[in-house]
Amino acid sequence: MSRKLIAPSFLAADFANIQQEVEMLNSSEADYIHIDIMDGVFVPNISFGFPVCQAIHQHAKKPMDFHLMIEHADPYLEDCIKAGAEIITVHEEACRHLHRTVTEIRRLGAKAGVVINPHRPVSALEEILPYVDLVLLMSVNPGFGGQKFIETTFDKVRKLKKMVDQANPEIIIEIDGGVNDKNAGELFNAGADMLVAGSFVFKSDDPRQTISNLKKA
Ligand code: DX5
Ligand code: ZN
């Protein structure tokens, strides 16, 4: 059964008004605040660092979901926890010792997630599934908000759902990139538990209503 969780991506928020944006999310039906950290190495963009995360955390009444698009995650895991991370996801291609990294995330007290890029097969996750709480499927190439949803993601979710049901049905399936009201319903039906939405939420006329609509998709 899909859990229908929504995690608005703060990358699309108005950074001149962090407090108001977080308060809008606090009073919405959002389940998590998705935090995109980019290093300009693993992805061709730099987003924001821990001082900004701390500012978000200071006002946030929702749990924070950290998506690390960085080459060297290990030295920053504790910083993520201090900045409020309840979930930390790392890219399978970026972590040379992925098992060590996800084990460390759990030891620090957060849920550990692994992220897979659009071109990578879900079968690459087989051996790591017993050690994670969440799998994040990228439905765009990571690095930027506002990109077009890659349609082959639907089949990938179905494949992953089968694997997860066998390995550990508790694992949360999260989708990130180009999520909107046209694909949300089919993603939940295919087995997704949690949808990240950046532009679709923050650029809409009524972000709170948009979040609520996505939850009902
Ligand atoms: C992309 C980020 C996403 C992004 C989603 O690299 O990981 O979380 O903010 O933004 P939208 O929903 O606009 O595609
Ligand atoms: Zn993200």
Automatic annotation (TrEMBL):
Pathway: Carbohydrate degradation
GO biological process, any: pentose catabolic process
Gene3D superfamilies recorded: Aldolase class I (3.20.20.70)
GO terms for cellular component: cytoplasm
Active site positions: D36, D176
Binding site for a divalent metal cation: H34, D36, H67, D176
Keywords: Carbohydrate metabolism, Cobalt, Isomerase, Manganese, Metal-binding, Zinc
Pfam families hit by this protein: Ribul_P_3_epim
Residue positions binding substrate: S9, H67, G143, F144, G145, G146, D176, G177, G178, G198, S199
Catalysed conversion reaction: D-ribulose 5-phosphate = D-xylulose 5-phosphate
Highest taxon, organism lineage: Bacteria
Cofactor notes: Binds 1 divalent metal cation per subunit.
EC number: 5.1.3.1
UniProt-listed InterPro entries: Aldolase_TIM, Ribul_P_3_epim, Ribul_P_3_epim-like, RibuloseP-bd_barrel
Cofactor(s) needed: Fe(2+); a divalent metal cation; Mn(2+); Zn(2+)
Gene Ontology MF, one: metal ion binding
Function: Catalyzes the reversible epimerization of D-ribulose 5-phosphate to D-xylulose 5-phosphate.
Protein family (similarity comment): Belongs to the ribulose-phosphate 3-epimerase family.
The protein's name: Ribulose-phosphate 3-epimerase
Organism: Ekhidna lutea
